[in-house]
Amino acid sequence: MHGVIDPATAGTLATSEEPRGPLLQVRNLTVEFATRNGLVKAVKNVNLTVAKGETLGIVGESGSGKSVTSYTVMRILDRAGRIAEGSIAFSGIDIAHAGEKQMRDLRGREMSMIFQNPRAALNPIRKVGHQIGDVLLHHLQADPRNVKEKVIEILNQVRIARPEERYHAYPFELSGGMCQRIVIALALACRPQLMIADEPTTGLDVTTQKAVMDLVTELTRARGMSTLLITHDLGLAAAYCDTVMVMEKGEVVETAPAEQIFRNPQHPYTRKLMRATPRPGISLRDLLPEEAQTQGLAQASPLPNLPPQAGEGAPVAPVEDGLPGADISAGHPLPLAGEGREGAAAPAAELSSVTKGAAVPEADKTLQPLLKVENLVKEYPRQGAPIAFLASLFGKKPAKEDGIFRAVDGISFEVRKGESVGLVGESGCGKSTTSTIVMRLIDATSGRITFDGEDLSAIPAKSFAHHPMRKRIQMVFQDPTESLNPRYTAARAIADPLLR
Ligand SMILES: Nc1ncnc2c1ncn2[C@@H]1O[C@H](COP(=O)(O)OP(=O)(O)O)[C@@H](O)[C@H]1O
Ligand SMILES: [Mg+2]
Q: Residue 482 pLDDT more than 90?
């Protein structure tokens, strides 16, 4: 095993032999937070065991205490949180009482963690190759002479194509899936014994999700590492874990081998989670609480598996940190009534704009569209582009494609009043770039955007924030916590734009 723990502080690991017993053992763990409304028990009496080489899945809906459990193991809890009861033994070390210095040594070297938003884990202004290099140098896994070579080797291991080129990339130049591979590379650089993955693929599309999970499994297996996979997706846990532990409201309700949990869930809450797991043949109706299903609330919608159209009488129920809905976007195939890919060639990866053509009343088609996007193109300079530019100064003519990456390549589509248009495609195909251009957060390279008859593309992105048109186009992002000002209460957050 690499990364030997300081023997002076390593408890039973002091000898070079493998520790007996599990790698991680959590006993009767209770974690509480001091809040304005008193003490909140986020995790109650949790027991879990991770054997060497084992993958344990922690499953539960948002707020069930999965992250708090793992943060406690890493001892990266908020200052307001504390271990109220219980013990955590990792490799024979008493985590609850270990010193901060010892924890710093353990983190990254013996246990490391990857999160949902890989971009947040990366330094936005440092080349990814250098970021991996920093970690290798810091943990003495490389020296300045061979560090670049080692980084390229690692990029190859995490299956990043053209690693020499990607070495020089900044995080914003890479797709979410690719950033997550970089983060995995960082997490594995020091060959830790335990990897905690907290919703590592939640922000990724299904194809990329699978590729990333396959990669994590393969790399951790090859290294004999243990993994704690935290996810709200029972299907994902069942597919990739040896054992699955189900949490509800801070408590463990069921722990069993993955196969068993899936075939024969015991606890009612596990069965509820099962229903919320998207798989072919399940409809959104199945995700409603049982009572609602029998109340005719979910009468057959004209398109099987599609939510009722707005205004069709299905009330949107308020959610209680809810389960249903959370997984609807998880990307299982919904049958579509009509598919029309418009525009010129889609960018590198396929991007399709799909409209439910049949659902649009004929009369609407004669009206001008509310939003019209024509031949939208967004280009970014590729790495090495400045060199290509210099070469052109000296009369050398580089091939046009050399220095340029087309993130959006000639997209056209229309959105009529009252219509919903889905933009579908795998991670990195240009969906977000298209929507951020339409929102006028960034400028297009070329193309035209007309909104309600006005040429939006003529307004520079930097002055759009104060444009009267701004409030007529709104965007909802993937990560709600990042969209909210942490210092505002819910009431203040909603009032803020109204008062402006
Ligand atoms: N810093 C904090 N202060 C107060 N309560 C918190 C804090 N962090 C988490 N909690 C509470 O702990 C509970 C479990 O949260 P979490 O572990 O993040 O859930 P999960 O990861 O399963 O979505 C939630 O009720 C949450 O509100
Ligand atoms: Mg969480």
A: no
With a 6 Å cutoff on the Cβ, whether 80 touches ligand 1 is: yes
432-467: pLDDT as tens digits: 889 989 988 889 999 999 999 999 888 888 888 888
Q: Determine the residue type at 446.
A: S
Distance of CA 87 to the CA centre of its chain: 30
Residue type, 249: K
- Read off the pLDDT of residues 45-101 as tens digits, 9 standing for 90 and up: 999 999 999 999 999 999 999 999 999 999 999 899 999 999 999 999 999 999 999
| Fold agreement (7-270, 351-455) | yes
Which letter does DSSP use for residue 500 in this model?
-
- Is the shortest distance between the CB of 494 and ligand 1 below 6 Å? no
Name the residue of 30, 33, 76 to mutate for ligand 1: max ligand atoms within 8 A of Cβ.
33
E strand intervals along 399-444:
404-415, 421-425
Secondary structure of 251-291 in HEC code, one letter for each residue: EEEEEEEHHHHHHCCCCHHHHHHHHCCCCCCCCHHHHCCHH
| Distance in angstroms (rounded) separating the CA atoms of residues 480 and 179 | 20
Q: How far is CA 463 from CA 68, 433, 497, in A?
A: 41, 18, 18
* C-alpha span between 497 and 500 (Å, rounded): 5
Which atom of ligand 1 is closest in space to residue 247's alpha carbon? 22
* DSSP characters over 131-156: HHHHHHHHTTS--TTTHHHHHHHHHH
**CATH number listed for the domain at residues 7-270:** 3.40.50.300
Query: How far apart are the CA of 88 and the centre of ligand 1, in A?
Result: 19
Q: Assign domain 351-455 to its CATH architecture.
A: 3-Layer(aba) Sandwich (3.40)
* Most ligand 1 atoms within 8 A of CB, residue of 32, 41, 68 to mutate: 68
| Alpha carbon nearest to ligand 1 atom 14, residue | 65
Q: Show Cβ contacts of residue 166 under 8 Å, excluding neighbours closer than 6 positions.
A: 128, 129, 155, 160, 174, 178
The residue ranges of every structural domain in the chain are: 7-270, 351-455
pLDDT higher than threshold 70 for residue 219: yes
Helices 176-188 and 147-157, interaxial angle, to 10°? 120
**φ, ψ at 281 (rounded to 5°):** 95, -15
Residue nearest to atom 3 of ligand 1 (CA): 33
Complete DSSP assignment for 169-198:
--GGGS-HHHHHHHHHHHHHTT--SEEEEE
Q: Which pLDDT belongs to residue 268?
A: 94
Question: Picking from 145-149, 152-156, 476-480, which range would have the lowest pLDDT averaged per residue?
Answer: 476-480
Please write the tens of the pLDDT for every residue from 246-289. 999 999 999 999 999 988 999 999 998 888 776 655 555 555 55
